[in-house]
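Usage example:
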Amino acid sequence: EPEVTQTPSHQVTQMGQEVILRCVPISNHLYFYWYRQILGQKVEFLVSFYNNEISEKSEIFDDQFSVERPDGSNFTLKIRSTKLEDSAMYFCASSEAGTGGSSDGYTFGSGTRLTVV
Amino acid sequence: GESVGLHLPTLSVQEGDNSIINCAYSNSASDYFIWYKQESGKGPQFIIDIRSNMDKRQGQRVTVLLNKTVKHLSLQIAATQPGDSAVYFCAEGEYGNKLVFGAGTILRVKS
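Running the assembly step on the lines above writes:
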């Protein structure tokens, strides 16, 4: 079964450092998303991406965050200067046809646990 | 603003019993709803979805009910098994927009 792949599974970084979280979405999917989940809390939307541009972003997704699809397969989330409160699980997801456009929702990866120290 | 399922209850059921997990949503414009299962250390896994033009949908051992009048969504799991133990999230969205997740419900299955 096709899956969304995320690397690394765990990243520890010093406060103020830049991190890049990587994702390989399902190959025929056109819509891409980043969500994050602080330990014990709900899954929060960060950003959606379609047709090589951001289609929607949350208030969490400030100027420290950026996304890129550098080639035909990877989808990355960059945090320019990490803060302690950025520590969370970051999930990448992809969808064939966007919200409601297909019958299987978004497919999520297993996540990257980001720890900022 | 929109919000979904602000509470995080824990539901404990005996193996073999049926489970019902509930979710309230507040965005009356939402037209698509999904239930996800999240096991420890993993990403959310799709269980079942329903569109706003339906009030019930069945899958394998699972049924989702949608009551738009009171903005309520439920997930019924038949013959609950130990492998069903996880956190269950409802999510809602408007067609073409982002999915918004609820706070989740912990399901514990006792053997």
